[in-house]
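Q: Sequence in, structure out?
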Amino acid sequence: FGSFGGGSAGPQRHRGSDLRVKARLSLQEIANGTTKKFKLKKYVACTHCNGSGAEGNSYETCPECKGTGRVVRTQQSFFGMMRSEVPCPHCQGEGKIIKNKCSHCHGEGIVLGEEVVEVQIPAGVVEGMQLSMRGKGNAGKRNGIAGDLLIQIEEEKHPTLIRDERDLIYNLLLDIPTATLGGVVEIPTIKENIKLTIEPGTQPGKALRLRGKGLPSLNEYGRGDIVVNVSVYIPETLNRDEKKIIESFKDSENFKPTESIKEQIFRRFRNLFD
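A: Exactly. Output:
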């Protein structure tokens, strides 16, 4: 509470310190925006003296600075005598002195208290972003300037979706029959599960894009997408009948990848490291 705000002309006002809180948000809250309430323990203006620090507004003009809050100091330097204007040390730049200090706050004008603050968090915020609410920090001494409330954004990890800026990534693991014959699968979104048609012959590494199902950008129009990364599960163990079925396909030309298919698949993997 020792810092000052305002310009160099006239008495100065103390500025209260800032407060910091963390807002932990789900993807749903980030997608739609939300309101969070915080119960803050902080310095507030003393109600007994209305923040003045004085009993009955018992002030007197500072005799040293004559109420200006500033004094001129002269000192010898390498270039000769230098004159500078500084806050008055007698009244700490306030221009006035309390004659009778408040019995509740002892002349400070502030006491420890609590306040419930509602914070409107816009849609599209990101991990590590800091929002601020002016004047919701600690009160300044003797009716000074209140500090700010700084809100640090944290994101909760989603069980199935991974955030990539505005886009959301979902890793889809297909079984061999669905990848080969095609079918319908369910894909999670922020609101609900939606059905996605898998085309016959879908290869691992393919990315399917669900337009407009991602997150909004802060202060911008439009939404990102959900990118579905396709992988295919290969069974680790087979029984005797399953092995015979797989072996019967071994010599089929349809089960041998062409050069173009191989190039497509390996190009997708190379792109992951570019």
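The first strand starts at residue 4 and ends at 5.
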